[in-house]
Every structure is written in C-alpha cells, then in structure tokens.
Amino acid sequence: MGRVSSITALEAHTAMRTQQVLNQPAVQSGLKDILLNYAGLMEALRQRAAEQA
C-alpha cells in the first residue's frame, strides 16, 4: 500500500513540475520556435488551409 501512495505522489509531483516548466515564457517561446521554424508546422498548417479553401 505504501508503494501505491509513493507512485501517486511522484506522479502528482511530476505533473505539477511539468506544468510549472511549460508555463515559463522562455520555454513556451522555445517550443513555438521549434514547432514553427524547424518542425514544419507552419507549412503544414498553410497547406491544410489551402486544401480546405
């Protein structure tokens, strides 16, 4: 039973910490830069919009 509580506490801590990190403006800016400039997201979105028009 103690192990289940530990896993739950670890999962809660991980989720909380992840949320804190993702809410940082520098992290959000970096992720946006990667998605838009390196992962081809902007081109894919433009292509999808053109296909639907």
Protein described:
With 53 residues, the chain is mainly alpha-helical. The protein has helices spanning 2-22, 25-38, 41-52. The chain has a domain at 25-53. The chain is built from three helices and no strands. It starts with a helix and ends with a helix.
Helical content stands at: over 70%
* Biggest beta sheet attributes: none
Q: Secondary-structure element sequence? A: HHH
Overall average pLDDT:
87
The coarse silhouette is elongated
- Which parts are unreliable, with pLDDT below 50 for 5 consecutive residues or more? none
**Strand residue content:** under 5%
Structural class: mainly alpha
Instruction: State the total count of DSSP E strands.
Output: 0
N-to-C terminal Cα separation, in Å?
57 Å
Using the CA coordinates, give the radius of gyration.
Answer: 18 Å
Q: Helical stretch count?
A: 3
Helices, strands, pairings?
Elements: H1 2-22, H2 25-38, H3 41-52
What keyword list fits this structure?
53 residues, mainly alpha, 3 helices, 89% helix, elongated
Summary, kept brief:
The chain is mostly helical and 53 residues long.
